[in-house]
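Objective 1.3, modelling of assemblies. Example input:
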Amino acid sequence: MMFHVPRFNPARVHLALQRGLTYGLALLLSIWVLLPIVVIAVAGLSTRQAIYAWPKALSPETFSLETLTFFLNAHGVLSATWNSIAVALLTLVLSLVIGAPAGYALARFIFPGRDAFKVLILTTRAFPVVILSIPLAVTFIQWGLYDTLFAVALVHTALALPFTILITSSIFVAVPRDLEEAAQTLGCDRLQAFVRVVLPIALPGLAAAAIFTFVISWNEVFAATILTLRQRTLPAHVLTVLNESPLPFRFAGGLFMIMPALVFIFFIRRYLFNLWGITTK
Amino acid sequence: MQAKVGGHKSVARGLAATGPYLLLLPSALFLLVFFAWPMIQALLVAFQTKEGQFTLEYFRRMTGDLAFRDAVRNTLLLLVAIVPVQIVLALIMALLTLARLRGSTLFLYVWAIPLGISDLAAGIVWLAIFTERGYLNSWLSGLGFLAEPFSFLSYENPLSLFLAVVVAEVWRATAIVMVILVAGLQMIPRDYLEAAEVFGASLWQRVRHVILPLLRPSLQVALILRTIFAFQVFAVIVALAGKTMPVLAGEAYFWYGAYQNTNVAAAYALLILILSILNVILYLRVVRVQQEEVTL
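Predicted structure (tokens):
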């Protein structure tokens, strides 16, 4: 067996040092992102006594669901949670039904006005939700839609739609056109080719787009607060009672709102960079 | 002439001509209704009296309000403090992905996590850290730096309150910038980087002369998107500062809700719109620049 004795090699030492530094930096940035999440998890999963304690122990000593159950049993939280889920699901369906056809058109056709439509999409992304919500509240009062979950879902759809269109477009672009044409040559019409060939291939991507839309809606707080009085979504409810609520309520609320987003982001991690890549094209 | 070719083909051609427009119609209509109409409605609400006459009364009330100047100042100061830090941090993250570290996809996922966290939740997360009996004070006291907890978030300490908001916003919204920059970086042909390496360019030279110029379109997009989002900063501040640190979006919210004055709230919304439109103009120019670069 060959035995290799490493000689002192300045270039190699330099390389190793560089590599170590790179890892160190990457780890440091990861800690910067993760540490606050650990903190809110510790805070949300401890007793009320521990939350008010001073100074706090540097490592978590007690694990308890007391704070979280206190939050969930607080007046209005559970119904707001259901409202949030309903709004997010409604938003998801609306934006996929309205947006996916546009995404498909952008992916498959070259036609006059295509660029104008893309500019329209990019432009809408630049309008803050603040500007939409306040005048829309006035409109929704006139239409009799004010303080309904449907109204909130409509605004969330308006927010999510540009993303949905761009995301679905990038997903359909990735489905080989040849397969679709082959299906058409073999006797499928355009719709059949879409349903039988394109859709199954695009399904994971479309699911990722749906999850992304769900997260946008679940997280949105400004429009949801402006457009509702009693039909609060979870963030809207937490925001309106926040500054009168005790710390355990706030911490548990923060943790509870973050948890589903963490799970969802994990599921769509493969698509995250494709989702946004198209925006810079 | 074409009609003679045969039924099947002309149907296909007809579909090819109208098909894309039919597919686009629902979303185009939806976007127009939910973006164009609120703009008009905002103008009506902000400039019209109850009797339907033109008025500047609501704008005067907005600019005359005690919190107005602070709101404008705070919003702009936050923008200036937050955006450069985010760009630098995101750039470092993006460049680290080039080092081909083992587990670099895991790092990317971890750095992208804040994408799924709302501004309200992010504010609460940092509240747990910065609040008087919070974790930062506990750590500082555990390390012997502090005997008594320091009120980071008190209006008596505007600097630490401001910095707390900056930290929370940087933590939450750097991920978007990072994702845009990583996506941009992936579009740079590997050959360029390898060529630069072969010719002996140092890391700094590669970043300065190859990566940054090629990344410019993505950097501009990230910069402008972040600037627009900065005008909406709101829930983080409500969670950390309550009402003690006015910002534009927060004032719009309070005028609509707590003060029950939709007209002044709409005036604030229009002000944010004007600031955003300035950005859109910039944004569209960026898009045009990119297209020119592509055709070159």
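Residues 12-67 of chain A form one domain.
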